[in-house]
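Curious: why these numbers?
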Amino acid sequence: MSDTPLIVAQQLEKRFYTAGHPLFIILAQLFPRLFSKRVRQHAVLQGVSFRLQAGRVLGVVGLNGAGKSTLLQMIAGIYQPDGGRLQVHGRVAALLELGAGFNPELTGRENIHLYGALLGIEPRLLQQQEEAIIAFSGIGDLIDQPVRTYSSGMFVRLAFSVATAVQPDVLIIDEALSVGDGAFARKSFQRIMDLKAAGTAIVFCSHLLYQVEVLADEVLWLHEGTVRQIGSPETVINAYQLFLEQLAQDELPSAGFQQNAGPTSSEARLLKVNAWIDGVGETTCRSGQDDLIVEITYRIVHPQNPPTLAVVIDDDNRIPVSSCSTFYDGVQLPFDRQGTGRLRLRFPHLPLLKGSYHVNVYLMCEQAVLVLDAVEQAFSFTVTQTGHEIGKVMLPHQWESADQVC
């Protein structure tokens, strides 16, 4: 795989006209030196620089209005930079507003060629891939019906199938790594991962920080149009989460942090989640003394691709305190011939300190990235403590005399 970058951004700038007479706005665009002072401008991006090689993933995070979507649209060729330099090499596919180029009066088959042409796919390639596109979308015989008769799910499935029909050199994804619902969400996610493995450079923007940290090779944090930080996922995501936590404490709703579950899948479902405190009360836990027990019942339709389970404990501010996953713990989900199974998770002598907490359960794909089903705030409980230690958790520790330390 070549080390030559497919995307090179150097000191990118983008400005939009926000106020002024329409005539002067047009003149300012045509003759900026003469008329730019007659209208008001807003700098959306300033001094943004990065490089992206083939087969690597750049995650983009930031608050709403930070300039993320504008940056992706510039890479896709929708906007041109007002300053700096942007080089994008190879075929580009953008999953921004899926199906924005569809004509509702045309059939699905006709829209394959219309939408594909708008995406820059050669007619010859579209013709070769037509049947594969239809098969992947799952539209079936309705492909020759007008798109206006389609459900929203069918519409999105067909648009995604066209956009990813031919392997692009660069793939741009805004906000979601999967589309549609049920089995198609999983299938679309797998297609994106296959493109990455085949050498496609991927730029994606997401509020789901877990996905960003797991999938990205590098993360770009945009804040008010400038690069706040760029580097390894662990470093940047940790800094961004601290920033979001501070905003939450300051009660600023614009933080834009979302821990939303993905679409409910027809391939796997959470049937029941039970949780209790094995101690003095059903919803009260004594720190370091009582056990927290979570019992999860689920059903798997396709056992050949068994999903994984994740449990996240967060506080009243929806800030995760701790989590665990069968994927990382190497635990296989048990199930019977009907695909139904039950797994119990125990947190012995729960070391959380005083406060209110919530248990969230996620059924995820076999790679522990895509959420198939979720029960958020399945169980709420309160932790009490006898001492006056501060914080969220009591870590294992021991005191030693300095003279005894080697």
About this structure: Residues 55-254 form a domain with the Rossmann fold fold (CATH 3.40.50.300). The chain has ten helices and 17 strands. The CA atoms of residues 335 and 341 lie 4 Å apart.
